[in-house]
Amino acid sequence: MAEPPTRRSTISRLPVSAESSARISGQAGLREVMARFATGVTVLTAPGERGHGMTANAFTSVSLEPPLVLCCVSRAARMHEAIVSANSFAVSILGSGQEATARYFADWRRPRGQAQFEQVDCTPGPRTGAPLLDGALAWLECALTEVHAGGDHSIFVGEVLHAGRGAAGEALLFNNGRFERTGARGTGDRRATG
Fold this sequence. Notes:
The protein is built from three helices and twelve strands, in the order αβββββαβαββββββ. By secondary structure, it is mainly beta. A hairpin with a 5-residue loop joins strand 2 (about 40-45) and strand 3 (about 50-55). The protein starts with about 25 loop residues before the first helix and ends in a 13-residue tail after the last strand. Residues about 10 and about 185-194 have low confidence and may be disordered.
């Protein structure tokens, strides 16, 4: 009787080149690997007394029925407390012309609280009051429904209460430590800071 074939690990079947064969480990290694994953760029906002905004690319849809999205926020970030305090958040999906806005909300030196929104054009969301950034490709307002521990971050799941779209246009992307736009490679050194 023949023995069944042994199962090989999926990892052992991955193609290996001289460039990719170097082992990468630790936080810096994970950051290097994830930099190869192009993502859209959003600004998360929370309303209220502890209102805050933050550039984020750890955002995705979860479910259509019910309509759910999630974002991941460091537990050490001011945004974390702002979302928990408001029990809601909003997401502005940035267009290719909003790189300066993305950089502004990534800069820890900007004003705190509601004063940070005086530097940008925004409108309070009709359902949560969270600032929705003018000129964005799309907006979502969400009620916080679940919070999950995810290492040094929390995974916030929100039920979409209101959604809207702006004018059609190219999206702002973050790829390999640089801002880019859909359909085009970034030009020059446009590395993000802050």
